[in-house]
Amino acid sequence: xxxxxxxxxxxxxxxxxxxxxxxxxxxxxxxxxxxxxxxxxxxxxxxxxxxxxxxxxxxxxxxxxxxxxxxxxxxxxxxxxxxxxxxxxxxxxxxxxxxxxxxxxxxxxxxxxxxxxxxxxxxxxxxxxxxxxxxxxxxxxxxxxxxxxxxxxxxxxxxxxxxxxxxxxxxxxxxxxxxxxxxxxxxxxxxxxxxxxxxxxxxxxxxxxxxxxxxxxxxxxxxxxxxxxxxxxxxxxxxxxxxxxxxxxxxxxxxxxxxxxxxxxxxxxxxxxxxxxxxxxxxxxxxxxxxxxxxxxxxxxxxxxxxxxxxxxxxxxxxxxxxxxxxxxxxxxxxxxxxxxxxxxxxxxxxxxxxxxxxxxxxxxxxxxxxxxxxxxxxxxxxxxxxxxxxxxxxxxxxxx
Length: 401
Known about the structure:
The protein is built from 17 helices and 13 strands. By secondary structure, it is of the alpha/beta class. Helix 10 packs across helix 14 (270-277).
């Protein structure tokens, strides 16, 4: 029997519903949106447009759904919760939801796996002021801590619930490559509206391999044989489809430093990243260290989405060499974070953090080295070595300011 994994976003969903709001729940495929809503929230009425028959029924005549709901709602003494899964497949349903919400007849949970379709569909109604947008992510470490996950398994196979619940590595590998071929290769290509499928396929492989690194659009365009603007458009498609997070650099220097201005992109799940890149599982130490840095970045982004909507994750790099892997902007402060594939980082490992803190003395008071130490410890008065399992400590400490 698969272990039940409690999702932290559930409390956000319940709080939003309790204050009478409806919800737009977005997130990539297989992050567990449907399972969470159906099994834990237990809506009163459900529709799934991922079912071909259901989609065809209402796609041909969206008003049919409105007429059916009007009859169903007559049997409820208080506004029920209506769940519509993959709502982006029939955008006209958003108008129906607005009508019912404005009448006070029901609350909606509308889920979608493509922000691009929701944003680009012609004349779509995004229900401003009526819905709260929440983001479903792969599993955070806190959600799976009771399973005592192995770090290398996380870096190789990712944290999608459906993949994590598969017991053997061979089946996980099959499922990851299936995800890439059936979802990314087919649906993302359709989203891209590309004229040359081979270019986009090559881009997807390179983008996965380059994830977490500072981007050079010119070099990528030369490698793939398309224009810089096409590369930028491809990345925008991945971002809109919730498959990458864009990490922008911090560029406001207070001295004469020349700071890098190119973004980094983090793939939403490391298992999917590896399958897209076509990497095997026998990876050298250096690559595992890079994947560890990538994983920490994802955890920072996802924790921010969950509980700290004003938080921003950036990075900092001087063209002369000094670089800090992540800068967490929170509560008016900069929190510099380095990631080390080590269990005992020392004072030498803090040199770039110190340079950053000297550059921004008013905003950067504490720094962290996230690593594989079993227990946190001070390296000096301002910099703490932190176990990778305790990233929430950074947010907790920032809240005390």
